[in-house]
Write a structure and sequence with these properties.
- There is one protein chain.
- By secondary structure, this protein is α+β, with helices and mostly antiparallel strands.
- The protein has one domain: 2-Layer Sandwich (Nucleotidyltransferase, domain 5), CATH 3.30.420.10.
- Helix content is 43%, strand content 22%.
- It has four helices and five strands; from the N terminus they run βββαβαβαα.
- A three-stranded antiparallel beta sheet has the order 1-2-3, sandwiched between helices. Strands 4-5 form a two-stranded parallel ribbon.
- The mean pLDDT is 78.
């Protein structure tokens, strides 16, 4: 998800959702998110919950490239699949979660700093577990 701080600084949020249980596993917040951030979040989840059999991602730049592919195949041994561009119904559980996150958090707050945004948004995921 993308948003901005009160001063106009861009804000990105990576949401990781179990599509079967619909549980929010993690939300990572930063000014920019890249494949390294996705891999770090996945490694933490694998360490605490075990490796998934499947990973499903949209077509964002942070999900493309060799790093995520290598992590999925070597660290988690997961099969990686991605949604088709322009087809949000292919990832309806994630799109619904992101919409709820936007309605319940991003649209209600005007964050002054990245630290404030991280605290509030990442706290949302903890509350939804």
């Amino acid at each position: 998800m993308a948003d901005q701080l009160a001063d106009g600084t861009r804000l990105r949020a990576l949401t990781i959702v179990d599509v079967f249980s619909r549980e929010a596993l993690a939300i990572e917040v930063g000014k920019r998110l890249c494949a390294d951030d996705v891999v770090s979040a996945l490694k933490l989840l694998v360490a605490s919950r075990g490796a998934p059999r499947f990973l499903f991602a949209d077509n964002g730049s942070e999900f493309s490239g060799r790093l995520l592919d290598m992590c999925g195949r070597t660290t988690t041994k997961a099969q990686i699949d991605s949604s088709r561009p322009g087809k949000p119904t292919a990832s309806s559980v994630i799109e619904t979660f992101d919409g709820s996150c936007r309605d319940e958090c991003l649209n209600l707050h005007w964050f002054e700093s990245l630290a404030e945004a991280k605290c509030e948004i990442e706290g949302l995921a903890a509350g939804l577990r």
